[in-house]
Amino acid sequence: MNTAGGDGAEIIYALRNDDTFSAKIAKELETAGQNIRKYYQRRLPSNPAKDYYYILRDTPNNETVIVEYGFADSTGDDVSQLKNNWEDLAEAVTKAIVEYAGGTYQAPSNSNYYTVKSGDSLWSISKKYGLTVDELKQANNLTSNLISVGQNLLIPKKEAETSTNEYIVKKGDTLYAIANKYSTTVDNLKSINNLTTDSLSIGQVLKVPSSASNDNTYVVKSGDTLYAIANKYGTTVDAIKSLNNLSSDILSINQVLKIPNDETYITYTVKKGDTLYSIAKEFNTTVSAITNLNNLSTTLLSIGQKLLLP
Q: Which of 39, 53, 220, 296 has the most CB atoms lying inside 10 A of its own CB?
C-alpha cells in the first residue's frame, strides 16, 4: 500500500527484467476497477546498476515485482476500493500470475469472475447475472461480442434489485434523470421495464429499484458540497442537513449521507398569499414541523421559496 496522497496502483519491477509481467498485472488490476498510475523500475542513487528496493535487489534468481495496490491516504477512491474491493484486486493479480506463468486460470466460484464455457455467449452470461451485454463488455474492455472458452470475464457488482416500486413519468422526465434520481442506470431501467428505446410518455408507469427509492444514500467524494449534492438529487441543503442531523455544511470524504426522496418529503413552492399556517393546514401538518424541517428562523416567506413538508 502506498502513501503520499496519490491515487491508483503502481507496479515496480527489477532492473534485470522487462515490463511484460508488470504490464499484465496492470491490465488485470485495471479490469478489476483500479486505475493505474504507472509500472516502472527504480535505481539505487548510490549505485544505478542496482535496484532501489531491497526486495528486488535480494531476489536475483526470481522475477520479482512489488505491487502497490493503492494509496492509504488517497484523495480519490483508493481508500474505499482498498476497504471494499481488496479481494477483487488480489484476485486480479492472482489471475495475472497464473496466466503469465502459462497456466490456465480458473475463476473461483465465489469470485466476481466467470470462466467462459462451451456454448456461452455474452448475451447468455449477461442474462445469467442480470446485466446487459453493454455492461458486461464495458466491465471487461471488450470491443466485440467474441469470447473464447476458458476466458475469464469480470462480472460487475450490482445493487440488490430484487423488488421494485413504481414511478409515474411526468412532463420533462428522461430515463437518465429518473435513473439518476433512483441511483441506478438507464440500461437497468430499460431492462426491468423491457424498454427498447429511451422514449417516454407522460403517465407511463415505470418499475424502479425499491432498495434505491426507500433508502437513498450518497458517499461523499473529494470536491463535494452540500449544495452540489442537493442539486444532483433535486432536494435542498436544509433537507439533507435535517435528515442527517448535520449542524454545519462541512463534509468529509467517504461520509455517508441519507438523501431525501419523494417518500420522505413533499417539496412545495410558495405562492402569493401563502403563510406557514395556511400551508400547514393544507398539508395536515404544523407550523413548527415546517420551520424545524426547513431550519427557518422566521415565519416570513417569499414567493418562489421552496419548502419541504412532512
A: 39
